[in-house]
# Entry
Amino acid sequence: MGLINLLIKDPLAFVLIAVPLLYSVILHEMAHGWVAYKMGDPTAKLMGRLSLSPLKHLDPVGTLMLFFVGFGWARPVPVNFAYIGKSRAAQILVSSAGIIVNMSLAFIALFLLQALTLPSRGIVWTMLYYMAQINIILAAFNLIPIPPLDGSKILMGFVSDRFQSALLRLEPYGFFIIIGLLFFGVLNPLIDFFRWIILSIIGLLLFR
# Structure
């Protein structure tokens, strides 16, 4: 279900979901640019992409898809590896930054839900709950090793040059492949598997 249906049926729920979703996506994209910047690439900073302004990150088509279909995307933050060097470690660090941020946001939200005495289903409780769920799903989804998702770029840091080339050739068609696989439910078990891994890691940190 797209967000537009939720806006019509329950405006408060729309706000409680849309705000954490918006800034979770923005922080995910900013993380790629920030790590690249710290490693010597000024591209994202010079283009104004190290910003919390939604206008710097929203993709018109991706936003419309999110509102009407329930699946969307933001504008990827540009990274120029000519400044960083094309080492496998650099590629893994830059590519995993957004996923790490999403996992961190999920951890913070779940920690606050556990640590604070909040009325169940109250506004703050609900927003923290959605923040946790949204970021777990974002991290799990981006771990899928299909270009242009982060999981494919992380995978490229570990595989042979020949396999890297095959993934790069797949990238122009990646979104169409992902949408098709999502439509037929093929990716659901993989997303659930990554979600289980993420929840297991967060659970170890919360309850150690």
Notes: The chain has a mean pLDDT of 92. The radius of gyration is 18 Å.
